[in-house]
Amino acid sequence: MSANQRIRGASAPCDAAFVTRWLRGCAAQIAAHRDYLTQLDAAVGDADHGVNLDRGFVAVGSVLEAADGLPPGELLVQAGSTLVLRVGGAAGPLYGTAFREAGRCLGTARTFGVAHLTEALEAALQGVTALGAAVEGDKTMVDAWLPAIRALRDQAGAALPDALHAATVAAEAGAAATTAMEARKGRASYLGPRSVGHQDPGATSTALLFLALERAAG
């Protein structure tokens, strides 16, 4: 393996099989919680978040079937492009951008470790915030994604399963915390104070994706 196919100086427990498990796990989590996500969205949005994401990740599964031999970064780029094309509403561009930016960060590396995974997830979040202009506290997916990143940073040097468990716990707590927030971005912001008391569907689906990521390392 050449130097440019390997992440600098870090342990590299992750590879294309890991990313494939993650993406398939995302599909499974979204499918299992499709109706719940749609119910959450019915309270503050268009009542289609779960249905749209489920459709998108089913399509991602088909992409994975034909993606044998691709490096992990390219798998994520293709998954992201598929979500942009197949998921309606804001979720498609946002999640599609997240996966594409993560994949571009990984580049052509065949293996990578916790440090570069954290960098990739940070790049994903930067893509989301650049597109959606949301910040922490706006009651969006950022409120789950950003705490997960903080947890990963705090776990620098930890084993992959431990680091990802901490990220999942943080993402789930961040999603739960959106219940008390007033939405300032997206369709939910039209409700103003009436958005308080409802958990954000995007933050909730983000927590599910981090749970899938944790289980991919198991």
Write the layout of secondary structure elements.
Blueprint: H1 16-32, H2 34-44, H3 49-65, H4 72-86, H5 91-106, H6 114-132, H7 142-154, H8 160-177, H9 201-216
Helix pairs in contact: 1-3, 1-4, 1-9, 2-3, 2-9, 3-4, 4-5, 5-6, 6-7, 7-8, 7-9, 8-9
Distance between the termini: 25 Å
- The assigned CATH architecture is Alpha Horseshoe
Largest sheet: none
Number of domains: 1
Which stretches of 5+ consecutive residues score pLDDT under 50? Answer: 1-11
Summarize model confidence as the mean pLDDT.
92
CATH superfamily label: DhaL domain
The 3D shape can be described as globular
Number of strands: 0
- Count helical runs: 9
Order of helices and strands: HHHHHHHHH
| SS strand fraction | under 5%
Radius of gyration: 16 Å
In terms of structural class, how would the helical and strand content be classed?
mainly alpha
Question: How would you characterize the overall build of this protein?
Answer:
The model is unreliable at 1-11 (pLDDT under 50). Helix 1 packs parallel to helix 4 and helix 2 (34-44) packs across helix 3. Helices cover 65% and strands 0% of the residues. It has helices at 16-32, 34-44, 49-65, 72-86, 91-106, 114-132, 142-154, 160-177, 201-216. The chain has 9 helices and no strands. The chain is mostly helical and 218 residues long. It has one domain (12-216): DhaL domain (Serine Threonine Protein Phosphatase 5, Tetratricopeptide repeat, Alpha Horseshoe), CATH 1.25.40.
